[in-house]
């Protein structure tokens, strides 16, 4: 039981850091190119983790694991995160709609885990997942009219969520064998180095940006990327990819709270309703077995 408790604690640390991403990113809009921040995040975060591997003298990795790690890095850094950025930069894109679609990635994690790792999806998790989705829809679509949604932006966000789900399962498989530190260190560096030629082809500066955004870039690289991804896979190896990723449903709730505190956004009825639904969904997914044993 303690193994699973620590697993969810690690994933919760990840979600807290991930939930600050939009708020911090909003403060550097116009000062750092979206593709550039992806490269910097994963290159700096990966270099930091690689430094720890050097200190531990634990750089050895077999060819098969390296192949899986490289696949994970390309899926996440090159495809998923850039598709997410493209979704946000599309004309008439609604950040809230993009956020709710990307936050559905635990659904695809569960699907890929069921296919690749033979993880069973019990009914109570399906119910909890549904409640969580209702919650993030309520939070993220506040005041949005359906006819205002640009179909290209949601489609790109959906592709990003699907690939992030696949990346999570692939990465968890490598992490369980070689450890989270090594998996993330190598995958981040490989992904960022594969992304580098894309920046050069598109004439996007690699390291040159408005240096008044340096603190935010360091935070996004070290905490939101380096530490958060490390704790993410430390959690998933203890809880299972499907179960651990369910905590991702808390991200829209926490992101909204951070936006209220730091960006002075208003509390709405949708936020309150969505928070209740999301927490209820989390309670069902995480504690249903205990509840059933106690009352049934």
Description of the molecule:
- With 296 residues, the chain is mostly helical.
- The protein has one domain (2-122, 148-249).
- It has helices at residues 2-19, 21-26, 34-56, 63-89, 95-102, 105-116, 123-140, 152-178, 180-201, 214-239, 241-245, 251-263, 269-295.
- The radius of gyration is 19 Å and the shape is globular.
In DSSP terms, counting alpha (H) and pi (I) runs of 4 or more, how many helices?
13
Strand residue percentage? under 5%
Let me know the largest β-sheet. Answer: none
Radius of gyration: 19 Å
Residue share in helix? over 70%
Supply the helix-strand structural class: mainly alpha
Beginning-to-end CA distance, first to last residue: 21 Å
Order of helices and strands: HHHHHHHHHHHHH
Q: What is the number of E strands?
A: 0
Overall pLDDT = 81
Q: Pick out the low-confidence regions.
A: none
What does the overall shape look like? Answer: globular
Family: Belongs to the EamA transporter family.
Subcellular location: Cell membrane
Keywords: Cell membrane, Membrane, Transmembrane, Transmembrane helix
Pfam families: EamA (PF00892)
């Amino acid at each position: 039981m303690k193994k699973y408790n620590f697993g969810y604690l690690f994933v919760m640390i990840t979600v807290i850091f991930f939930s600050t991403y939009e708020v911090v990113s909003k403060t550097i809009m116009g000062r750092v190119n979206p593709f550039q921040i992806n490269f910097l995040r994963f290159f700096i975060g990966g270099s930091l983790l690689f430094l720890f591997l050097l200190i531990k003298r634990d750089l050895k990795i077999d060819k098969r694991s390296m192949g899986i790690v490289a696949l994970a890095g390309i899926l996440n850094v090159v495809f998923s995160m850039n598709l997410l950025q493209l979704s946000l930069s599309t004309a008439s894109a609604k950040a809230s709609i993009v956020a709710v679609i990307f936050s559905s990635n635990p659904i695809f994690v569960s699907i890929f885990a069921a296919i690749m790792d033979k993880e069973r999806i019990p009914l109570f998790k399906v119910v909890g997942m549904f409640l969580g989705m209702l919650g993030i829809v309520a939070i993220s679509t506040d005041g949005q009219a359906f006819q205002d949604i640009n179909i290209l932006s949601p489609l790109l966000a959906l592709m990003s969520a699907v690939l992030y789900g696949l990346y999570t399962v692939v990465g968890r498989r490598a992490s369980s064998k070689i450890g989270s530190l090594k998996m993330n260190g190598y995958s981040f560096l490989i992904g960022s180095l594969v992304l580098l030629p894309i920046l050069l082809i598109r004439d996007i500066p690699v390291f040159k940006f408005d240096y008044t955004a340096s603190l935010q870039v360091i935070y996004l690289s070290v905490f939101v990327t380096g530490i958060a991804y490390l704790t993410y896979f430390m959690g998933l190896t203890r809880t299972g990819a499907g179960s651990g990723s369910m905590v991702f449903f808390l991200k829209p709730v926490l992101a909204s709270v951070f936006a209220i505190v730091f960006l002075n956004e208003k509390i709405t009825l949708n936020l309150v309703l969505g928070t209740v639904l999301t927490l209820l969904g989390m309670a069902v997914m995480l504690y249903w077995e205990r509840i059933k044993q106690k009352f049934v």
